[in-house]
Write a structure and sequence with these properties.
By secondary structure, the chain is mainly α. Helix content is 83%, strand content 0%.
């Protein structure tokens, strides 16, 4: 029997996944992925809510407000482009922990910044 005949007898990956039983491990992955997406959405939402307050408190122009707002998107692009492939090589769990620590550190740094141009 040729390999083509054997491949035709096997179900496709999509069908196999559709017919697979949902285990506790699957539910855990769904929960973690959902929480990650929720955290990103919450972050973008909070930036939108905070923009008028940031503009007023720091006395910045519209383009500076846009720059502050776009920093989260630039961070997400950086994370996807750099940390995604790194997660494939070093392990997603390790990179996910590193990502969470970066989020905490940079959030605290933003909180402590006396002005927009702080370094």
């Amino acid at each position: 029997m040729s390999s083509d005949d054997e491949a035709k007898k096997l179900p496709s990956l999509g069908k196999a996944l559709d017919n697979a039983r949902m285990t506790g491990l699957h539910k855990k992955f769904w929960l973690l992925a959902g929480l990650g997406i929720m955290l990103d959405g919450f972050d973008f939402f909070i930036i939108g809510v905070a923009n008028p307050l940031i503009k007023e408190d720091f006395g910045i122009s519209a383009w500076q407000t846009g720059l502050v707002s776009s920093a989260a998107i630039v961070g997400a692009i950086f994370g996807a482009a750099v940390l995604g492939p790194l997660g494939d090589k070093l392990g997603r769990r390790r990179i996910f922990k590193y990502d969470l620590w970066m989020f905490v550190v940079f959030s605290v740094a933003c909180m402590l910044a006396p002005e927009i141009g702080s370094r």
